[in-house]
Amino acid sequence: MAKAFLGQELVIKMENKVGGGAEVYELISETGVNVVATWGYSQGEDAILLIITDDNETAKNKLDSHQVRWEERDVVLTELENKPGAFHKVLKSMADAEINVDYAYATAATRRWSLVVLQTSNNEKAVEVISD
């Protein structure tokens, strides 16, 4: 069905201001770290950025050096075929296993494959269920 593994996302909570996100992504890009997937949204006076990179340690060091507060959160990274119904199968298998999805975001990495980031009620079990 799909390939799933545990990963970590960087969660950045910052003031919701024009250009704030651009500042964060500029810092990350200056290190040569690639942003693999991302999701951002506003929540009142705050902006929340969820970022998957190919090198969190380097990104965290750069953010630290510019006093950008972050936290790292475990997530399920899922590679699945980029075709109709693929994500439904993942969600259905997790529902059948009584795993709740707190949130999900995705990127169509290629025409053939998508990367879906999931935060669930049981990430370890989700990896097993998705990978079966």
Key features of this structure:
alpha+beta, 31% helix, VC0802-like, 2 domains, single chain, six-stranded antiparallel beta sheet
CATH fold descriptor of the largest domain: VC0802-like
Give the distance, in angstroms, between the N- and C-terminal Cα atoms: 7 Å
**Cα shape:** elongated
What structural class is derived from the secondary structure elements?
Answer: alpha+beta
| Element pattern in H and E | EHEEHEHEEH
How many strands, what sense, and barrel or not for the largest sheet?
A: 6 strands, antiparallel
Write down the CATH class of the largest domain.
Alpha Beta
Percent strand: 35-45%
Proportion in helices: 25-40%
Work out the number of β strands.
Answer: 6
The residue-averaged pLDDT reads 94
Radius of gyration: 16 Å
Low-pLDDT stretches: none
The strands making up the biggest β-sheet line up spatially as 2-3-1-4-6-5
Number of helices: 4
Structurally, how many domains make up the residues?
Answer: 2
CATH architecture assignment name of the largest domain = 2-Layer Sandwich
CATH superfamily of the largest domain: VC0802-like
Can you give a write-up of this model?
- There is one protein chain.
- This protein is of the alpha+beta class and 132 residues long.
- The chain has two domains: 65 residues, VC0802-like; 58 residues, VC0802-like (2-Layer Sandwich).
- 31% of the residues lie in helices and 43% in strands.
- It is built from four helices and six strands; from the N terminus they run βαββαβαββα.
- A hairpin with a 2-residue loop joins strand 2 and strand 3.
- The radius of gyration is 16 Å and the shape is elongated.
- The N and C termini lie close together (7 Å).
